[in-house]
């Protein structure tokens, strides 16, 4: 009955008043979403969080600076705010973060985001990379039941580099080497039927058993039933883990076994992630690829408005986000030497 009354009230308003009401409601919604950024403040005030520097729960309130609450740890004797260590640290226009996430969810380009929010393009890019670093530890569950796993490949990219050790390659141009080689980056995508998933930038060129172990080894349990293609590394990995393994041989036109074992969900996911990276974002530098895989993971797992809530919920409590953001280069070097 209340829903009908609201609709009738809205229909009786003039067009101008309807627009005013919609604007006011949207502002109220934005304010409510902005309060999500204060999640860690509430946790600290209620002793439900710890010092971001040493992990101690012995801390006290220590006034405020520029409207931001400060705390002091009794163990390490250092002061901190609710944003210390998180991707929200050192961001001045925090009121723009929720609108920024909305525009990001719509896949708007950095140029369009810059224009709409009136921020620098580099700022928009830095925020994206900080967010991706904050959601790197989203999945800790164990795969249960039928679990599909397969790798896909992206062209190695030094996008943004000024001093290349090779001739620049025009975007979209094919590489000269044939087959799978070190100019391609392997990404292992795995997911079970309950939406537990993992997207891991594994190596340059062909994957090895150790790459699969590094990507999903900790997420394999006794109830995991692995489905993959005929790559020998998966066979060895499944044998080491002593789990049931079903090989899908697409080269023999075998796509489904016993009407339930297949890797079609993963193949569909491959299509979506490649479309997002190559067409929506026009390619990304390999050093940032894992960060974008983290964002893709959140996009797949949480839809629509839940995406924004989860980004803020996870990101505002991850006190290691800035460290990971600053160590992107080191992670990239490890990928090249692996």
Describe this structure as you would to a colleague.
The chain starts with a helix and ends with a helix. A five-stranded mixed beta sheet has the order 6-5-4-7-8, with helices on both faces. It has a three-stranded antiparallel beta sheet with strand order 1-2-3, with no helix packed on it. The protein is built from 13 helices and eight strands. Helix 6 (121-134) crosses helix 10 (289-301) and helix 7 packs across helix 8 (232-241). The radius of gyration is 23 Å and the shape is globular. The protein is an alpha/beta fold. Strand 5 (184-192) and strand 6 (197-204) form a beta hairpin.
Tags for this model:
13 helices; 43% helix; Nucleotidyltransferase, domain 5; 338 residues; 3-stranded antiparallel β-sheet; 5-stranded mixed β-sheet; alpha/beta
Tally of individual helices: 13
What would you give as the CATH superfamily of the domain at 143-162 and 180-301?
Ribonuclease H-like superfamily/Ribonuclease H
Order of strands, widest sheet: 6-5-4-7-8
Q: Look at the helices and sheets and give the structural class.
A: alpha/beta
Mean pLDDT: 85
Can you count the beta strands? 8
Q: Output the CATH class name of the domain at 143-162 and 180-301.
A: Alpha Beta
Give me the Rg, rounded. 23 Å
Rounded to the nearest angstrom, the distance between the terminal CA atoms is 63 Å
Strand share of the residues?
15-25%
What overall form do the CA principal axes indicate?
globular
CATH architecture of the domain at 143-162 and 180-301: 2-Layer Sandwich
Helix content class: 40-55%
């Amino acid at each position: 009955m209340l829903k009908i009354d609201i609709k009738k009230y809205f229909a009786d308003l003039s067009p101008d008043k309807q627009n005013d009401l919609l604007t006011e409601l949207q502002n109220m919604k934005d304010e409510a979403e902005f309060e999500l950024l204060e999640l860690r403040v509430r946790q600290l005030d209620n002793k439900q969080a710890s010092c971001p520097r040493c992990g101690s729960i012995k801390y006290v309130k220590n006034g405020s600076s520029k409207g931001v609450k400060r705390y002091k740890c009794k163990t390490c004797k250092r002061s901190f705010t609710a944003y210390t260590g998180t991707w929200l640290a050192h961001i001045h226009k925090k009121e723009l973060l929720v609108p920024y996430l909305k525009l990001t969810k719509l896949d708007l380009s950095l140029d369009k985001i810059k224009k709409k929010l009136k921020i620098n393009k580099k700022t928009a890019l830095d925020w994206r990379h900080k967010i991706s670093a904050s959601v790197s530890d989203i999945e800790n569950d164990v795969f249960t039941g039928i679990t599909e796993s397969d790798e896909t490949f992206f062209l190695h990219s030094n996008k943004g580099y000024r001093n290349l050790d090779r001739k620049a390659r025009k975007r979209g141009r094919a590489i000269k080497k044939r087959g799978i080689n070190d100019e391609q980056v392997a990404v292992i995508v795995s997911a079970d039927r309950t939406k537990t998933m993992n997207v891991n930038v594994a190596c340059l060129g062909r994957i090895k058993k150790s790459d699969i172990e590094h990507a999903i080894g900790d997420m394999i349990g006794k109830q995991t039933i692995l489905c993959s293609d005929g790559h020998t590394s998966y066979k060895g990995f499944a044998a080491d883990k002593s789990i049931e393994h079903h090989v899908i041989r697409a080269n023999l036109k075998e796509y489904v076994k016993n009407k339930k074992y297949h890797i079609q969900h993963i193949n569909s996911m491959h299509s979506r992630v490649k479309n997002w990276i190559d067409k929506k974002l026009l390619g990304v530098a390999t050093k940032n690829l894992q960060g974008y895989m983290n964002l893709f993971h959140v996009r797949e797992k949480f839809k629509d408005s839940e995406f924004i809530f989860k980004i803020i919920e996870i990101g505002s409590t991850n006190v290691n986000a800035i460290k990971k953001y600053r160590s992107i280069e080191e992670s990239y070097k490890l990928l090249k030497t692996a």
